[in-house]
Amino acid sequence: MPHSRWANKKVIAKWIDRLQLPRERILDLGAGMGTYHILLTDKYTTALKDSHWIAVEVWEPYIEEFKLHEMYDEVFVEDIRTFDYSKVAPVDLTFMGDVLEHMTKEEAQEVVAKVLEVSRYAAISIPVVHWKQDALYENPYEKHIKEDWSHTEVMNSFPHIIEGEDYDGVGVYLLEGGVA
């Protein structure tokens, strides 16, 4: 969905505040309606307000519908599986909010590996219960391909997790990347 449950984003906001994460360049993969930008520049924390925000969104109609060009400093209409991350590197913090379930496990692992090569930290939000979802809003990318992630599987599938929590069926994870 172009939007997701906002409550679990509070956990990520607390991590950002507590860990004093770098905050100059922020990458939002699968930006949708701009949930992370909205919540982390205004609602839950203003810690990322003055950051340079970059959105990558595969479904072009969301760009205009949610006015992403007004929120983000840069907007790319591309698939995060094939996106050339060198275009935006280095990045301080990358959000992968409710996007990894829209691809195979192997594709998700490849995306995370690419992100960790260019980002100091990455935050993942992903359903960790069986969550079937077909295409929505005429958007074929909304279909869940891997609809049965579990907290244990996420913890075992992605390297460098430094924080992880199952928050009422949605897992939130903070990973440390390779950029110093």
Mind explaining what this structure looks like?
The protein is an alpha/beta fold and 180 residues long. The chain has one domain: 3-Layer(aba) Sandwich (Rossmann fold), CATH 3.40.50. It is built from six helices and seven strands, in the order H-E-H-E-H-H-E-E-H-E-H-E-E. The chain has helices spanning 9-19, 35-43, 60-65, 68-71, 105-118, 151-157; strands at 25-29, 52-56, 74-76, 91-97, 119-127, 161-167, 170-176. The chain has a seven-stranded mixed β-sheet, with helices on both faces. It is globular and about 35 Å long. The mean pLDDT is 86.
Which structural class fits the helix and strand makeup? alpha/beta
Largest sheet: 7 strands, mixed
Mean pLDDT: 86
The strand count comes to 7
Please list the strands of the largest sheet in the order they lie side by side: 3-2-1-4-5-7-6
The string of secondary-structure elements, in order, is HEHEHHEEHEHEE
Strand content: 15-25%
Helix content: 25-40%
**Assembly state of the chains shown:** single chain
Work out the count of structural domains: 1
Give the overall shape, derived from the CA principal axes.
Answer: globular
CATH architecture: 3-Layer(aba) Sandwich
